[in-house]
Amino acid sequence: MDLKDAKELTRALSELLKDAHHQLDEARPTPELVARVTGHLGCSLKDVVNVVERFPTWEHVNLQRGLDAYLAAHTPDAEWFGIAGHGREHNDIVNMLASAERNWERFEPGAVDYATAAVGPDETTEVISLGLILTRSPEGVPVVVGLRGAQEHSAPQCRIVVLAPDRRSATGTRDAIERLMREHDIYRGQVLSFAWSEHRGNDLVTFLPRPSLAADEVILPGGVLATIERHIVGIAEHAVRLREHGQHLKRGLLLHGPPGTGKTHTVRYLMGRMSECTVIVMTGTAIRYVTQAAGLARRLQPAIIILEDVDLVARDRSHTDDGNPLLFALLDAMDGVGADADVTFVLTTNRADVLEHALVDRPGRVDLAVEIPKPDAVGRTALLRLYARDLRLEADLDPVVAKTAGATASFFKELLRRTVLTALRDEDPSPVLTGEHLSQALTDMLGEREALTRSLLGSGERVHQAEEHGMPFADFDER
């Protein structure tokens, strides 16, 4: 056989094998998983358009809610089905369909995979982590929608997959579901934290209970709380008219003062006062997610972003060798929200003196700075009555007030706790707090062994100095 004949024989054998494979493929029944998808779409798998949209994992519950709303409107009787088979944890939906069609892997319809996601501080719901459903596009074209949660060894994302016979139907379905996601956003009006919480979590974003404080529970110098409310609440109440007159809504509030004076307490009051507002709380290293938080706040406005102890990341850039990248992220986030957004940034710090000037001196970032000082005599009396409000207090408070100049709200809270413990030693189920009880608790707290506690709770060094000189603090302070 010469070379020409050999080549012709090779070509003929190749064609024969190809025809044999084709006939075998036609004779082999279409796998059930593929048949279910292609039968609904009315086209072969090779002609299916695949559109995928990815979201952070903390959006999984919103994606589920948007998809549920879409299905209720278009195919309320449709039922979800899952995919069974080895390796489904690591394969994409389209890859599993292709593998099943070519008989490379045995993937077939199976049970739906579910996961749990938070919808509130103490509530959860089920979300689909792997499932498919046969539905229709907004125009009525058959489509298949798949929902996929985060996969092992992959980026922390969830995704929606839309399979359709044409691109327009696929993208139209995806866009409609995403619009419904935003309409049914579970985070709207909630108190959220970009940090770990003891409450039920959801990866990066967790839910927190909304505090409920009355104005008379916030002990500040006269007019201070009213000024804060006018800046935060007043703008929110007139947001529509301010926009109509071309005025910006975004605002910044800085609360500064010594530790324990009530900055966080004031913030908690604002969280309860703005009951319809979405609140995002960021503390410590969680501030590195400020860009994501700012985007979420703009989406869910009216919103408040609370950045506690902001001096930890917003120190003057001259204090750091690397230029402080977290500071730049914070400044960019505050600017990026947009002046027209009803978003408030509330910052707290014990060290206003070290803050970056570009943060505190530029309108639009911080518009109002308020000092929360240590309470005066009137404030100290009010704090004593506040923390004893549910108890029987039968004591002359003036001696305690006189001895606690320079003390903070935290100090008085602990003082009342110790006073109650002292009274409970009398084994009275409904203790009466007397001047003797208060005096004993105060003596313990001001004792030499309590020096560190005084420092942490802010009792004031000059109180201790007065005691060392053997005279009342008021007399010592007049020297």
TrEMBL record:
<protein>
    <submittedName>
        <fullName>ATPase</fullName>
    </submittedName>
</protein>
<dbReference type="GO" id="GO:0016887">
    <property type="term" value="F:ATP hydrolysis activity"/>
</dbReference>
<keyword id="KW-0547">Nucleotide-binding</keyword>
<dbReference type="GO" id="GO:0005524">
    <property type="term" value="F:ATP binding"/>
</dbReference>
<dbReference type="Pfam" id="PF00004">
    <property type="entry name" value="AAA"/>
</dbReference>
<keyword id="KW-0067">ATP-binding</keyword>
<dbReference type="InterPro" id="IPR027417">
    <property type="entry name" value="P-loop_NTPase"/>
</dbReference>
<feature type="domain" description="AAA+ ATPase">
    <location>
        <begin position="249"/>
        <end position="376"/>
    </location>
</feature>
<dbReference type="InterPro" id="IPR050221">
    <property type="entry name" value="26S_Proteasome_ATPase"/>
</dbReference>
<comment type="similarity">
    <text>Belongs to the AAA ATPase family.</text>
</comment>
<dbReference type="InterPro" id="IPR003593">
    <property type="entry name" value="AAA+_ATPase"/>
</dbReference>
<dbReference type="InterPro" id="IPR003959">
    <property type="entry name" value="ATPase_AAA_core"/>
</dbReference>
